[in-house]
């Protein structure tokens, strides 16, 4: 019985893309998106790489090499940009927010903007969470996934 319970716990703790399918929103990428961190932030690009690796290891197709960019220029097709909230842009006091742009009437993602609080710029769980949204995942309300709503207001 103990062996069976151990196997059950082991199997239930292994994540893969199939586990995330039930969180999939109607939005999707038709290209492999690239991730850019705004150059005027102090966001640790190594943490962003770690978060990207998490999603790649779970079956998602995303460029593994984030880079810095000047965020005064607009984002463009196939880009996920990570930046800070601007003054007055966070009335709900969220720790992070992801906005998606797609064609009207279609669910194909064109570009995504992630905003985070500057005080949480090095929170790996927040970066993973918001990247999950950027890849088209909805919040998990069961409390079992990285992309879930909980007390931290991700």
Walk me through this protein's architecture.
By secondary structure, the protein is an alpha/beta fold. It has a single domain (27-134), classed as Collagenase (Catalytic Domain). It has helices spanning 2-13, 17-20, 45-57, 124-134; strands spanning 34-38, 67-69, 79-84, 96-102, 109-116. It has a five-stranded mixed beta sheet, with helices on one face. Strand 4 and strand 5 (109-116) form a beta hairpin. Helix 3 (45-57) packs across helix 4. It is globular, with a radius of gyration of 16 Å. 26% of the residues are buried. The model is unreliable at 1-23 and 148-154 (pLDDT under 50).
CATH class: Alpha Beta
**Whole-number radius of gyration?**
16 Å
Give the helices and strands as they follow along the chain.
HHEHEEEEH
Shape: globular
List keywords for this structure.
19% strand; 154 residues; Collagenase (Catalytic Domain); globular; alpha/beta; disordered N terminus
Topology:
Blueprint: H1 2-13, H2 17-20, E1 34-38, H3 45-57, E2 67-69, E3 79-84, E4 96-102, E5 109-116, H4 124-134
Parallel strand pairs: 1-2, 1-3, 3-5
Antiparallel strand pairs: 4-5
Helix pairs in contact: 3-4
